């Protein structure tokens, strides 16, 4: 069985469908929780699945340094290692090496860098990134690219995009023919429509199983990002999944789905779960705030997650203020469950041809703000 993408319904530019892989189906639009170091922090993999996630993201940069891709391969691959038998997408390491590693040296060949853990020297190239992602057993492999920080001048973005396209070809060549595994190319070009078009053209000529829109969510702001999403998804093949990397906040996701994006990943729901922030239909709630101290109501009425079913806002406030581990566990669970409910809502709305109404209600609910004091 191979890798395929079937679109079952469209509404405007939005689409809903299913990506089929030998390890299971991924319903789109899809949100992928981030399992950086072979774990979605504070969650058991079974619990991640219970929130409705079909696929996880793993980070090449972190895993190559610790415990190393070779060790994970010897232990049966990432799925077995972390006890997640469904699809896994791995990033290429390109973005994180630029944001986390030190003493970086970028050449045509790749990036040489020092580990942020112990200072050891490593080299990431398109070929090495493909090898690491194969050793991990990743189902969806990302091409190795360079993501320039914004703002950057046009000449720098152009040169970086062209380097990424040469690396995309090398990634394709090194990936080879692996039935059941997919390789995604990554469009670059910053906020420049013609550079994005040239990048898309180069990627289409190489040919990939899916296409990511890279180089966004790097500090440009929602308005600029939506500006790119007005045209970038349409530059990519219509019949392949489109993945917006590193996005985002719930309203970013809704707007991007309306503009034709199928896949997302972000640390936000899990990371904010560890800092006392709960995401609800009425926007983010800071559980550290003393207003919750005596509140017997759940974080979000009607949410089926354990945090909302079995605990009060007062309890969540208490365990978060006391730095108890269960605080991070419960809030992460709730946040991931909220994100997956949002994705299910988007999929249902697209299927029913009422995405605009869904989006209008989404914004109305958020505009109300959190429930008032009792
Ligand atoms: Zn909940």
From TrEMBL:
Residues 246-252 are annotated as: RNA binding. NCBIfam families: Q_tRNA_tgt, tgt_general. Keywords: Glycosyltransferase, Metal-binding, Queuosine biosynthesis, Transferase, tRNA processing, Zinc. Pathway: tRNA modification; tRNA-queuosine biosynthesis. GO terms for cellular component: cytosol. InterPro entries: ArchSynthase1/Queuine_TRR, TGT, TGT-like_sf, tRNA_ribo_trans-like. Substrate binds at residues 91-95, 145, 188, 215. It is an enzyme of class 2 (transferase). Residues 13-367 form the tRNA-guanine(15) transglycosylase-like domain. The gene is tgt. One of its GO terms (biological process) is tRNA queuosine(34) biosynthetic process. Its EC number is 2.4.2.29. Binds 1 zinc ion per subunit. It comes from the Bacteria. This is Queuine tRNA-ribosyltransferase. Zn(2+) binds at residues 303, 305, 308, 334. Homodimer. Within each dimer, one monomer is responsible for RNA recognition and catalysis, while the other monomer binds to the replacement base PreQ1.
